[in-house]
Amino acid sequence: ATVSVVALVFFLLGRREAVIVGAAVILTLTVTLFASWAWGFTLNRVSLFALIFSIGILVDDAIVIVENIHRHQHMHPGKRLIEIIPAAVDEVGGATILATLTVIAALLPMAFVSGLMGPYMSPIPINASMGMILSLAIAFVITPWLSLKLMKHKAPRGNVDGALEKVDTAIEHAESAAQKWLKPKFQKIFRPFLRDDHGSRNRKLLALMVMGLIALSVALPMLGMVVLKMLPFDNKSEFQVVLDMPSDTRVEKTAAVLQEMGQYLSKVPELKDYQIYAGTAAPINFNGLVRQYYLRSSEAQGDIQVNLVDKHERKEKSHAIAMRVRPALDAIAKKYDGRVKVVEVPPGPPVQSPLVAEIYGPTDEGRYEIAQKVLKVFQNTEGVVDVDDSSISVAPKKFLVVDRRKANLMGVPQQVIVTTLSAGLGGEETAFIHDETKYPAAAIIRLPESKQGTLDELLKLTVRNSQRELVPLRELVTVVDSTREQPIFHKDLLPVTYVVGDVAGSNDSPLYGMFKMRADIGKIKDESGKALDEFFIKQPVDPYRSYSIKWDGESQVTYETFRDMGIAYGVGMVIIYLLVVAQFGSYLTPLVIMAPIPLTIIGVMPGHALLGSQFTATSMIGMIALAGIIVRNSILLVDFINLQLKQGVPFKEAVVNSSVTRAQPIALTGMAAMLGAFFILDDPIFNGLAISLIFGILVSTLLTLVVIPLLYYVAYAGKPIAVAKKEGVQA
């Protein structure tokens, strides 16, 4: 990314300027890495992506300084560099400082995002903000010094020939080749909007067009053309198959079903290997920790750990492979009345499941009945897969009740009966074998596995009574039929029943699956005929009197993250406004400068739709960064208009000149940020950030070069005396 940015400067400005910018970028990255280490961050995927993402922002200060020195060389061909550099740096110094602070103001509030995503995202705003501060210092200290040492020096004014001595004041405003090429283009663009006769009408039409594009872009998520999701699926090299058989299933049958699934998986071309675990949990991994799969120990439960070949050796991502194998695995499980879930490693915040419905209510039976109705809604909703609940299937259970009277008459202690039953099923250590090994091996006695499946074989076991006679257990216990108890879960000290699911298909965002089910969920009634109370962001008010459903899972984390990021976005806007007010001494000018912030959405949303990408939390980070970047461009434009007005240039001409003169540094910094984003475009997690930056900068930069000067003209054209007083212009 750094090499690409330097190459861009080389082609647009020159060889020496590229060396200066490259040195500034490398130095900035070096000190930023040191500052990141001093802050306590480790070098991980997020912190590295934060540096890549911020390269385009870190290089802005150096590019603006170098480009303005380069421009002043064209304006003053007879001056020495040591005379040019202070004036060139001073001309853009205030705007550069303010622009840098606005980017920091937009990014830094994200460091205070709470919840699960806060620690995950904090390296991005903190690293970028530290880098911006350091890049500003380097741009004002190191970059001018390097320019003095490396840029081509001009001859002193006294050594030029007579023709140069006689040049008039127009030579002081000499233009670069880029400005000469841009000037007629911008004059043609601005002419319809600055005309005295139809200019006002044309400006209104432009405003209507821009607002229409903004409205259309906002409508894309509502129309389903851009999918909103917390984080996209990552391209991992593993996924997990979790099987739940009926609760009375023997481990042998569970293993047989898992073996049948394994035979199918062995035919998947991307498969590397798999391990089957029946009646026990797979070795603990991220999913095992988050979703508590490591606690699974029932004979009716099993896991298959599926390992894929490296992502560079396969064409499809792990999510596509998991979606492809899910229907066949589900069909195998249904043959044996089982439930299967194909579980991928979540890329971000851990949740119990993407779709979670929590059922609260006063009685266990009532919650169970409502949970079964909610379960059917999940199963009947298109696109919702891996449906399950926290209950277990109804299965018979037999109690062996010791006949205490008979046992006492025969002189058989109850503990002996319990120990014998336990030894018959689980085994008992009766002796130890001592050989050459360090630890003795236990000799365990128990019934053969072939006889453990029937109760009759267990009751044939005998114990000795007080007369040393063998008495069958059948004579000492009574068999009582019952059913297995349903497990009871609690959350925040409230009893709860869970219904979980996932979403697959073209739209795999749990948000859309949740809202798709709400109509059918609203038809569910409790035993009194009352509809369920529905909660999204807080716990039920009174779960001891009425039944309610609380949506959790990814939707809860998505709400908390986007809520906090939205608050951070708002705080950033307030800080930017106050900074611009302090710089320009006006309450209206900051509104003009911040007006293009909504323009970023014209690029962001259509960009996601064009590439078929989801709008995620990383996309939101890109939008927040865009706010600072686009305000930076506005400040450069407005600052130059003010400089022109101070020199007595007519207002309309100053408006056009601002776009002509500042187009090159704005385009340079924009393309630098876009180039940095291109290198993370293929990452499955951070591509939303890249798309926001690339398309947002592309569209908003083009619009800003036209919209901001026109807005500034509209804001102050009708009151030239007020502008003159504010900016020191001669009326």
Describe what is shown at a glance:
This protein is 56% helix and 13% strand. The chain has 24 helices and 16 strands.
What topology does this entry show?
Elements: H1 2-12, H2 15-39, H3 45-75, H4 81-107, H5 117-121, H6 123-150, H7 162-165, H8 177-194, H9 199-222, E1 238-244, H10 251-265, E2 271-278, H11 286-290, E3 301-308, H12 318-335, E4 339-344, E5 355-360, H13 364-380, E6 384-389, E7 396-402, H14 404-410, H15 414-426, E8 428-433, E9 441-445, H16 455-459, E10 462-464, E11 470-472, E12 477-483, E13 489-491, E14 494-503, H17 510-521, E15 533-535, E16 548-553, H18 554-584, H19 589-594, H20 600-611, H21 617-646, H22 651-678, H23 687-716, H24 720-727
Parallel strand pairs: 15-16
Antiparallel strand pairs: 1-3, 1-4, 2-3, 5-14, 5-16, 6-14, 7-12, 8-9, 10-11, 13-14
Task: Kindly describe this structure.
The chain has 731 residues and is an alpha+beta fold. 56% of the residues lie in helices and 13% in strands. The strands form 5 sheets. Strands 5, 6, 13, 14, 15 and 16 form a 6-stranded mixed sheet that branches. Strand 13 and strand 14 form a beta hairpin.
